[in-house]
Amino acid sequence: MTRRWLLLAVGVAAVGVILALAIEPARPGGGRTFQARQPTSRHGGERETPSRKKLVLGASVRHRPIFAVLLGDLDATRPLLVFGDIHGDEPAGIAIARDLYRDRPPRSGLLVTVPDLNPDGVAARTRQNGRGVDLNRNFPWHWRPLERRGDPQYSGPHPLSEPESRLARSLILRRRPMITIWFHQPLALVDESGGNRKIETLAAHLMHLPLRRLTRYPGSAASWQNHRLRGSTAMVVELPAGKPSRRLIERDSDAIRALLRASALPPGINLSHRG
Ligand SMILES: [Zn+2]
After folding, report:
1. Ligand 1: centre distance to CA 176 (Å)
2. pLDDT tens digit string along 200-230?
3. Which candidate, 254, 247, 261, places its Cα nearest to that of 104?
4. Could you give the CA distance from residue 95 to residue 44 in angstroms, rounded to a whole number?
5. How far apart are the CA of 235 and the centre of ligand 1, in A?
């Protein structure tokens, strides 16, 4: 990744945000399906249909809805997927996911945001879901029994025992994202999670965070995707502790838009399936 290229990416992101602010005021993301106001147009033969669509994926253990918002070219494949949280007591990324779908949709590529995968945990301010399971130990990659119900890293009775992890798994397998970002707190770093190191490095640079390698825990969502969808990059982004500042929200939201544009570039990345 050259410095010039990075500067260009950051510049394009900044221009995008300025345009978004100038052209369109923030809009609540309440509607189930809604089309952006700007008309469909053609530029250089490329059809632009930036839009938004809300999809209800299912419900949590305690029947709270879990939804995704699709932004940009709804027909595009290999989206960038963002999970605002998986641990209920680490909710800072939810504000970033919301910021993404309140802004103008990207002109090309598809952004899929799941603002809150663990609404029961957020409501109860617990790491685990409504049944006391750590969802980030409940995925099939090297799953093994860990701890007991209600313990911080209880991995559940079996892999994918929880509706929240099943919803995330089926969304990932259906959409086959090029990049998936899982927000956590409070370590303030990008975890070298086992995907494409160039993408991790770019994410760390854009988010002003160091790139470090954390322990790869059995049953974690990012490791599962990196092994199941070879060629895709799932990574953990640890935000700092506490409520995120407006500045951090804007910076990370811009970073994600820049990553979406960048993810269309590397031709060497192909997504192959491994059962
Ligand atoms: Zn976490």
Report:
1. 23
2. 999 999 999 999 999 999 999 999 999 999 9
3. 254
4. 35
5. 12
Residue 42 three-state SS = strand
The domains of the chain, with CATH numbers, are 70-266 (3.40.630.10)
**Gap from CA of 238 to ligand 1 centroid (Å):** 8
The whole-angstrom separation of Cα 184 and Cα 88 is 9
Based on the number of CB atoms within 10 Å of its own CB, is 275 exposed (0-12), middle (13-18) or buried (19 or more)?
A: exposed
What pLDDT band is residue 263 in, cutting at 50, 70 and 90?
confident
Ligand 1 midpoint to CA 248 (Å): 18
User: What radius of gyration do the chain's Cα atoms show?
Assistant: 18
User: What sign does the dihedral 246-29-257-263 (CA atoms) show?
Assistant: positive
| Ligand 1 midpoint to CA 172 (Å) | 19
Which ranges of 67-208 does DSSP label H, i.e. alpha helix?
92-102, 119-124, 163-175, 197-206
What would the two tokens of residue 87 be? Answer: 């641990």
Distance 185 CA to ligand 1 centre (A): 6
Q: How far is the CA of 247 from the centre of ligand 1 (A)?
A: 22
pLDDT tens per residue across span 32-41: 344 433 334 3
Give the distance (Å) from ligand 1 centre to CA of residue 184.
4
The residue count for the chain: 275
DSSP annotation of 153: T
